[in-house]
Amino acid sequence: MKPKGLLLVLSGPSGAGKGTICQMLRNKLPDIGYSVSVTTRAPREGEVDGVNYFFKTVEEVKTMIAAGGLLEYAEVYGNYYGTPRDYVMELLEQGKDVILEIDIQGALQIKKRFPDGVFVFIVPPSLDELSSRIYKRGTDSEEVIKKRLASATGELAYASEYDYIIVNDIAEKATEKVLTVMEAERYRAARTYFIIDEICHCRKED
Ligand code: 5GP
Asked: Is any atom of ligand 1 closer than 6 Å to the C-beta of 14?
């Protein structure tokens, strides 16, 4: 028997760097499944439909929600974001690891459905650093940036809902820490108990 794939959920406040860490993990683990979310937000410069997000209208997302096509969804900063169900379910059934990079509301919904998922909260080293990262990124309007910063302190309070908290000071180091978590999680007894059954089955009769 093969161990089940890990469902790794990365979340944390906007600007904490979870997108960068997610990309570094994908570079290091080319076989990991990455769920491309749907969103109603407009594409940013350089973003490609089907690669960064599936860009949808509000009506299209509402239809997907009504049809049960999303594993979770949330309204984040005035736009819908959601995780398409079928792709993630297929990969998990094949025993593959899957990463979701989603907001806290979405992570809490996933935790209810997949309590054996691995929930990692990525935090910035300080609120000042968070603010400077969001401004430097330069991808959002002043209004959106203010919304993101205002939410950050409240979002940090959700850290206790997660299995692991990783400070993203230097992205490479934070990525290594996530890899360490994944490695340890593979040996969790609840995931590997089937080995005991196999050992017992193999025992020769006296
Ligand atoms: P951005 O607009 O910066 O790409 O993403 C805004 C927020 O939405 C980020 O916190 C990101 O993690 C979150 N997000 C992206 N995809 C999903 C999703 O499928 N579901 C949920 N709940 N949040 C998502």
From this structure: yes
Q: What is the distance between the alpha carbons of residues 83 and 15, in angstroms, rounded to a whole number? A: 20
Query: Kind of pairing, strands 7-11 and 38-39?
Result: unpaired
Note if the pTM is more than 0.85: yes
Amino acid of residue 142: E
CB 91 within 8 A of CB 33: yes
Q: Taking 70 as the threshold, does the pLDDT of residue 205 lie above it?
A: no
The C-alpha angle with vertex 112 and arms to 64 and 174, in degrees rounded to 5, equals 95
- CA atoms within a 13 Å half-sphere pointing along the CA-CB vector of 150: 8
Q: How far is the CA of 94 from the centre of ligand 1 (A)?
A: 25
Residue nearest to atom 1 of ligand 1 (CA): 14
Which atom of ligand 1 is the closest one to the Cα of 12? 10
Q: pLDDT by residue (tens digit) across 19-50?
A: 999 999 999 999 999 999 999 999 999 999 99
146 to each of 96, 149, 176, how far by Cα in Å? 38, 5, 31
Residue 206, pLDDT score: 54
Q: Measuring from atom 7 of ligand 1, which residue has the nearest CA?
A: 103
Q: Ligand 1 in contact with 104 (CB < 6 A)?
A: no
Pair 90, 13: CB distance under 8 Å: no
Nearest to 110 by CA among 6, 18, 3, 14: 6
pLDDT tens profile 61-85: 999 999 999 999 999 989 999 999 9
